[in-house]
Design brief:
The complex is a heterodimer of chains A (419) and B (188). Chain A has 419 residues and is an all-alpha fold. In chain A, 63% of the residues lie in helices and 2% in strands. In chain A, the strands form two sheets. In chain A, strands 1-2 form a two-stranded antiparallel sheet. In chain A, helix 4 (91-107) runs parallel beside helix 12 and helix 12 (272-297) crosses helix 14. With 188 residues, chain B is of the alpha+beta class. Chain B has helices spanning 13-17, 19-37, 92-96, 137-141, 167-174; strands spanning 75-77, 102-108, 120-128, 147-149, 164-165. Classes of the chains: A mainly alpha (419), B alpha+beta (188).
């Protein structure tokens, strides 16, 4: 019985530590980064003032710390604003929607491996809340639920622009969910594994998917098969990253909340903390999306170059703190990728709606599909005879050419009857 | 009006692929970011930036020395070289003031005063700085050249009452102005 209690206690500690100490603070921090980084890109300064007003307590100087307290001030402001519910909304769904956008994003935290196992008092514990064998599937299943929040928000607001935003969001999610799912099939084929923890361990041992430059703990060029697999891996990375952008409703795919067309999009009618929940949901989705990309393609918590063995092996008595170092590496990679998200937002202009749909259905869907076969061919190559390999290659090329041809034909506009 | 048919530009393959433009965009934004962090953004020097972007950070750094001569700040009353209030409370500024920010209570100058022949001076002169729009019409209309727009722009207060500049405050901002109007000066 006490063992069970200890088990439960460990799980609770992991949940609280990993969600509330690692992931949730990343949300306001990414908001801060967004504001500062965008300011720097636009030759401005950004929020650099909000700090601890020590001068109020009689000290000489205020404590600014680059304005890192700004997110707290923002949150406080949102808490203190009037929480206004318009009379024309459908109340139950209107109240439910903000929670439905934030919660799925946070639930997906539970399968992300944050670091290698930590050993303390002879007890080894994995730094993942739920070590389940269907990691990516679970993430897709749960994170796609967040579209319900946005759609319900748009519909229950009972107002036309939020409604258009909600509908757009639904269409966008459906189109990009397909390429999202298809694009990682090559990756899963390569790893032969759906457990994210084991995927990262494999990458730590054999090189990251996009950087296969070491093997079994020593640097070295990859063999031919791994080197060839880099091509489908890179294609999968591009498609997956762009689809994650669309999934999280970030620029350049933020059509559901496109200010220039839809006032504020699906959250036009929301105020105060309900709006803040949408806001947090968007950023939490961004954090989780980055975590997934880092885990699948960029080696997760692994520091790479064959150094992971030393970190895992490092110990003070019976305490192996390697996992915590790996946690730090993971968070650093995560922040770097979030900065990339922000850079994209302030670089790429918003797509037009038909361009967005076309990109999803005509380009990414087909590209991801062909990529699956390409990856399968490369993985199966050692077992195939030269003849079958040749036929497969020719077939793949023919299919690719056909798809490109069809896409080109569909692009031609019908000629008007009279010019 | 003639109808002009615009031909959309024909994109070549590289432009259709879009990645070239994306990378160009990234280079552009990153160049801006790096330049702005090094304080070398375009125009940073001319705008006296704080070293981050082109922004001058206000309470520590000020634009004061760059204010042009025609800058219109807070309106203020001035005295002449003999310490006489120039204002003769003709109330023209009060009448011209578009937002009706000025309020004047005229007063007589008692006969014993050395400037008794000027006859009038304001007993009260108040400018409500919440209403003032810094248009400079009072300065333009004043026949005695007694009211001027100075370069003060930091007009703050915690109460509405604090934002009303009374006569004392106006003379304090305005100070002494010499020359120009000498019609009351018997020495000249």
């Amino acid at each position: 019985m006490p063992e069970l209690l200890i088990q439960i206690a460990i799980i609770l500690v992991k949940i609280v530590a990993l969600t509330f100490i690692v992931v949730l603070p990343l949300v306001p921090i990414s908001v801060y980064f967004e504001r500062r980084f965008s300011a720097i890109i636009q030759d401005r300064v950004g929020p650099n003032r909000v700090g601890i007003p020590l001068s109020l307590l009689g000290f000489k100087k205020d404590f600014h710390f680059f304005g890192l307290i700004q997110p707290i001030a923002d949150g406080l402001k949102l808490f203190l604003k009037e929480d206004f519910t318009p009379v024309h909304v459908r109340k139950a769904f209107y109240w439910l929607a903000p929670a439905l956008t934030l919660v799925p994003a946070l639930i997906t935290v539970c399968v992300v491996p944050f670091g290698s196992p930590v050993t303390l008092f002879g007890h080894t514990e994995k730094l993942v809340i739920a070590d389940i064998d269907i990691g990516p599937l679970f993430v897709f299943a749960v994170s796609s639920l967040s579209v319900y929040g946005i759609t319900l928000a748009g519909w229950s607001s009972n107002s036309k622009f939020p409604f258009i935003g909600g509908v757009r969001s639904t269409a966008q999610m459906i189109s990009y969910e397909i390429s999202l799912g298809l694009s990682i099939i090559p990756v899963l084929l390569y790893f032969g594994e759906l457990n994210l923890g084991k995927i990262v361990q494999f990458q730590a041992d054999h090189g990251w998917l996009l950087l296969p430059l070491w093997k079994n703990g020593s640097l070295g060029l990859p063999d031919l098969q791994t080197a060839l697999f880099w091509i489908p891996a890179a294609i999968a990375f591009v498609i997956f990253t762009i689809s994650i952008f669309a999934e999280t409703n970030r620029m350049p795919f933020d059509l559901p909340e496109c200010e220039t067309e839809l006032v504020g999009g699906y959250h036009t009618e929301y105020s105060s903390m309900k709006f803040a929940l949408f806001f947090m949901g968007e950023y939490a989705a961004m954090v989780i999306g980055s975590a997934l990309i880092v885990t699948l393609f960029l080696g997760g918590w692994s520091i790479g170059f064959g150094l992971d063995k030393h970190i895992t092996g490092f110990h003070i008595g019976g305490f192996h703190p390697g996992g915590l170092i790996h946690l730090g590496v993971f968070v650093a990679k995560l922040v770097a990728f979030i900065l990339f998200f922000i850079l994209v937002r302030w670089t790429v202009p918003r797509f037009r709606y038909d361009q967005l749909m076309k990109l999803g259905w005509v380009v990414f869907f087909e590209a991801a599909l062909i990529n699956v076969f390409l990856a399968a061919l490369i993985i199966a190559a050692p077992q195939l005879t030269a003849a079958i390999l040749g036929i497969g290659t020719v077939l793949l090329l023919a299919v690719t050419a056909a798809v490109i041809r069809v896409a080109k034909v569909s692009e031609e506009h019908p000629k008007p009857l009279r010019a | 009006m003639a109808v002009v048919k615009l031909q959309r530009p024909k994109l070549n393959f590289g432009e259709k692929i879009y990645f070239g433009a994306l990378i160009k965009g990234f280079l552009l934004t990153m160049t801006h970011a790096i330049k702005s962090l090094r304080g070398k953004s375009m125009g940073a020097k001319a705008l006296e930036s704080s070293g981050l972007g082109v922004t001058m950070q206000f309470p520590e750094q000020r634009w004061d020395s760059h204010l042009p001569d025609y800058y219109r700040g807070a309106p203020a009353l001035v005295t002449d070289e003999q310490g006489r209030e120039r204002c003769v409370s003709c109330q023209l500024c009060e009448f011209i003031c578009p937002p009706k920010a000025i309020r004047i209570v005229p007063g007589e100058i008692p006969p014993g005063d050395p400037w008794a022949k000027v006859e009038k001076r304001p007993r009260e002169f108040e400018i409500d700085m919440i209403r003032c729009i810094y248009c400079g019409m009072c300065e333009e209309v004043c026949p005695e050249q007694a009211i001027y727009l100075r370069k003060d722009y930091l007009i703050t207060g915690l109460k509405r009452a604090e934002m009303v500049h009374d006569k004392k405050k106006l003379y304090e901002i305005g100070g002494v102005r010499t020359g120009l109007v000498n019609k009351w000066n018997e020495l000249k």
